[in-house]
């Protein structure tokens, strides 16, 4: 231990300590307040001094530190490096290197160490190490490196396409993804004008948007079609971003990020088409459709607009749903709405509904829970059953007719025979009892009336026995007019013909059809006890139909009578049989025609439509 080498070493150590003590006052501030850790070692690597920053880095107080040797401060894998640099310093070289130090509690601190040899009397007596904590610096560097790496990975592998252009629109950079998105290698696009790749229909818009981005120094988004190398176009969404110099505020270049949205566009277009089809199905469905939430009408289809008698959809959208439902049905409607609101579909149920003009109609209504504009709503299907009800009524009527027909046949035959006998005997008796002549006249006229009823009944009884021939309708009507003119004149009625057609040939049983017009004209005359005018119009209805309109200026009929027209034996006249209209209806229908009645206080109009034998030009 006390050999000559040891002696030299301890002498150097003394020199070092003295040197440090002598210079202490001179460097005190620099030493104590230095941000960097400073520790001094003798040439054997024993610590002799450490400043407060070193204490902070290492975790050792100065007294503890001076017990330490250099190797204890560093983890094993660093010791070699540290000693290498230490020895170089002992040999007089300044050294700077990065390493890790193990602090007192075992944590690692990144340091940059500068070793400064301390020279006293021309010999190196120790090494001063200035240790800068570079943990934070290293972390930041690592972060920057990571970001750079990430950027590289992104641009190289991006599904998006990045294109940089100069102010003139020339492409100066393109990301590698260009190759698999558009098919061009970067050489094929560099220096090309960017607009030459844009679909001609989109070019002008693209140009304007780019100009805006440049002049406003703002990002701009847009979608347009880009030409691929194979000549096809794909829809791309682009974000166009001007890069601005921080000092001059001039735009340096424009970076655009493109994303292939052809698939998205296709899916969107398909969805749109599907929606349109769905909308058409709903709009033109034979049922009215309403989408409602609470009492609010959110949507109504074309059919609905028509069924409720509205001119436009808007007229209905401003209404409340309850305004369309007859008061008698409000309770049941509320109950059913509750069911649908709770997620249950209801069955069709017959409602009385109200049109916008206040008239009512019957409809079957079904409610289905649905989602409309992302919120729960009710899908209401409304089936107008007015027509069906009418047909039902018609059916009922024709049933009544056939019963009446059967009855009539029976009655007519049964009554006719005894009547003939009575008539014969009456004539005999009349010849014998001259004085009772007035009574016989009464009996005679009553008998005539019975005969009239019977003959009308018989027409009814044999509707199927038609004798069809081709007849000119104009002359048929003219002949009926002539027949009734006298009776009309006697009642102060004038029959006017408002047609100048020469002929309308129809196929019909002449006598039956005559009966129809006689019935109609007789009713008209009878409706005008104080006189008036009957007009007869005759015109083409369609290419194979003819229309007759017979109008009178009589008293007309209230609705309750109008509704009962055609019922057998329905009459309002003292002398009436109540069979005329019923028979007329039946005859017209047997001829494949239709008959309709309109009436108000000013008169009645009867429309008869019949098929023609030939086509008529409309
Ligand atoms: P009748 O003439 O024997 O009463 P109809 O069947 O011909 O029987 O007519 C039935 C009823 O229809 C008539 O009683 C009358 O009330 C009404 N009517 C028919 N035509 C007219 C008309 N042109 N104007 C007013 N009421 C009419
Ligand atoms: Mg009549």
TrEMBL record:
<keyword id="KW-0175">Coiled coil</keyword>
<dbReference type="Pfam" id="PF02518">
    <property type="entry name" value="HATPase_c"/>
</dbReference>
<dbReference type="InterPro" id="IPR013655">
    <property type="entry name" value="PAS_fold_3"/>
</dbReference>
<dbReference type="InterPro" id="IPR001610">
    <property type="entry name" value="PAC"/>
</dbReference>
<feature type="domain" description="PAC">
    <location>
        <begin position="347"/>
        <end position="397"/>
    </location>
</feature>
<keyword id="KW-0808">Transferase</keyword>
<protein>
    <recommendedName>
        <fullName>histidine kinase</fullName>
        <ecNumber>2.7.13.3</ecNumber>
    </recommendedName>
</protein>
<keyword id="KW-0749">Sporulation</keyword>
<dbReference type="Pfam" id="PF00512">
    <property type="entry name" value="HisKA"/>
</dbReference>
<feature type="domain" description="Histidine kinase">
    <location>
        <begin position="410"/>
        <end position="614"/>
    </location>
</feature>
<dbReference type="InterPro" id="IPR005467">
    <property type="entry name" value="His_kinase_dom"/>
</dbReference>
<dbReference type="InterPro" id="IPR036097">
    <property type="entry name" value="HisK_dim/P_sf"/>
</dbReference>
<dbReference type="InterPro" id="IPR000014">
    <property type="entry name" value="PAS"/>
</dbReference>
<keyword id="KW-0902">Two-component regulatory system</keyword>
<dbReference type="InterPro" id="IPR003594">
    <property type="entry name" value="HATPase_dom"/>
</dbReference>
<feature type="domain" description="PAS">
    <location>
        <begin position="23"/>
        <end position="64"/>
    </location>
</feature>
<keyword id="KW-0067">ATP-binding</keyword>
<dbReference type="InterPro" id="IPR003661">
    <property type="entry name" value="HisK_dim/P_dom"/>
</dbReference>
<dbReference type="InterPro" id="IPR000700">
    <property type="entry name" value="PAS-assoc_C"/>
</dbReference>
<keyword id="KW-0547">Nucleotide-binding</keyword>
<feature type="domain" description="PAC">
    <location>
        <begin position="220"/>
        <end position="273"/>
    </location>
</feature>
<dbReference type="GO" id="GO:0005524">
    <property type="term" value="F:ATP binding"/>
</dbReference>
<feature type="domain" description="PAS">
    <location>
        <begin position="274"/>
        <end position="344"/>
    </location>
</feature>
<dbReference type="Pfam" id="PF13426">
    <property type="entry name" value="PAS_9"/>
</dbReference>
<keyword id="KW-0597">Phosphoprotein</keyword>
<dbReference type="InterPro" id="IPR004358">
    <property type="entry name" value="Sig_transdc_His_kin-like_C"/>
</dbReference>
<dbReference type="Pfam" id="PF08447">
    <property type="entry name" value="PAS_3"/>
</dbReference>
<keyword id="KW-0418">Kinase</keyword>
<feature type="domain" description="PAS">
    <location>
        <begin position="146"/>
        <end position="217"/>
    </location>
</feature>
<dbReference type="InterPro" id="IPR035965">
    <property type="entry name" value="PAS-like_dom_sf"/>
</dbReference>
<feature type="coiled-coil region">
    <location>
        <begin position="130"/>
        <end position="157"/>
    </location>
</feature>
<dbReference type="InterPro" id="IPR036890">
    <property type="entry name" value="HATPase_C_sf"/>
</dbReference>
<dbReference type="GO" id="GO:0000155">
    <property type="term" value="F:phosphorelay sensor kinase activity"/>
</dbReference>
<dbReference type="GO" id="GO:0030435">
    <property type="term" value="P:sporulation resulting in formation of a cellular spore"/>
</dbReference>
């Amino acid at each position: 231990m006390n050999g000559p080498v040891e002696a030299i070493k301890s002498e150097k150590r003394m020199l070092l300590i003295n040197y440090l003590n002598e210079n202490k006052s001179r460097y005190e501030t620099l030493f104590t307040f230095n941000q960097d850790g400073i520790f001094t070692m003798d040439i054997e690597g024993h610590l002799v001094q450490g400043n407060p920053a070193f204490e902070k880095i290492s975790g050792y107080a100065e007294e503890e530190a001076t017990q330490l040797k250099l190797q204890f401060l560093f983890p094993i894998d660093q010791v070699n490096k540290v000693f290498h640099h230490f020895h170089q310093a002992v040999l007089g070289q300044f050294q700077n290197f990065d390493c890790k130090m193990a602090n007192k509690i075992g944590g690692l601190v990144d340091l940059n160490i500068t070793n400064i040899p301390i020279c006293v009397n021309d010999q190196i007596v120790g090494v001063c190490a200035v240790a800068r904590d570079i943990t934070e610096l290293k972390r930041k560097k690592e972060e920057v490196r990571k970001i750079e790496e990430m950027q590289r990975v992104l641009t190289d592998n991006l599904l998006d396409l990045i294109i940089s252009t100069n102010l003139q629109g020339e492409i100066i950079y393109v990301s590698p993804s260009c190759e698999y998105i558009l098919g061009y290698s970067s050489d094929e696009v560099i220096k090309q004008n960017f607009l030459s790749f844009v679909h001609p229909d989109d070019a002008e818009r693209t140009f304007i948007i780019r100009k805006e981005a440049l002049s406003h120094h703002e990002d701009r988004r847009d979608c347009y079609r880009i030409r691929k190398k194979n000549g096809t176009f794909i829809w791309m969404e682009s974000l166009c971003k001007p890069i601005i110099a921080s000092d001059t505020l001039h735009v340096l270049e424009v970076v655009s990020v493109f994303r292939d949205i052809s698939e998205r566009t296709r899916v969107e277009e398909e969805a749109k088409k599907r929606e349109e089809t769905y909308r058409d199905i709903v709009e033109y469905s034979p049922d009215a459709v309403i989408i409602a939430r609470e009492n609010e009408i959110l949507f109504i289809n074309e059919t609905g607009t028509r069924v409720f008698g509205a001119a436009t959809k808007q007229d209905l959208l401003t209404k409340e749903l309850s305004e369309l439902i007859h008061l008698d049905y409000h309770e049941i409607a509320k109950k059913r709405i509750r069911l649908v609101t709770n997620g249950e579909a209801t069955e069709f149920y017959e409602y009385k509904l109200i049109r916008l003009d206040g008239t009512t109609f019957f409809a079957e209504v079904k409610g289905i829970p649905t989602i409309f504009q992302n919120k729960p709503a009710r899908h209401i299907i409304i089936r107008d059953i007015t027509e069906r009800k009418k047909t039902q009524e018609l059916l009922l009527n024709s049933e009544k007719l056939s019963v009446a027909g059967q009855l009539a046949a029976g009655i007519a035959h049964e009554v006719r025979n005894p009547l003939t006998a009575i008539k014969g005997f009456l004539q005999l008796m009349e010849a014998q009892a001259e004085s009772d002549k007035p009574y016989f006249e009464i009996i005679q006229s009553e008998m005539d009336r019975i005969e009239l009823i019977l003959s009308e009944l018989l027409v009814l009884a044999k509707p199927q026995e038609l004798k069809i021939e081709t007849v000119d309708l104009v002359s048929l009507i003219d002949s009926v007019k002539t027949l009734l003119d006298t009776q009309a004149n006697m009642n102060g009625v004038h029959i006017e013909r408002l047609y100048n057609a020469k002929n309308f040939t129809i196929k019909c049983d002449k006598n039956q059809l005559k009966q129809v017009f006689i019935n109609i004209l007789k009713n008209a005359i009878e409706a005008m006890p104080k006189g008036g005018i009957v007009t007869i119009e005759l015109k083409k209805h369609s290419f194979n139909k003819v229309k007759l309109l017979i109008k009178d200026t009589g008293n007309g009929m209230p609705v309750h009578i109008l509704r009962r027209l055609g019922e057998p034996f329905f009459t309002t006249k003292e002398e009436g049989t109540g069979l005329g209209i019923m028979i007329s209806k039946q005859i017209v229908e047997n001829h494949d025609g239709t008959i309709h009645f309109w009436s108000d206080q000013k008169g009645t109009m009867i429309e008869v439509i019949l098929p023609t034998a030939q086509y008529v030009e409309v």
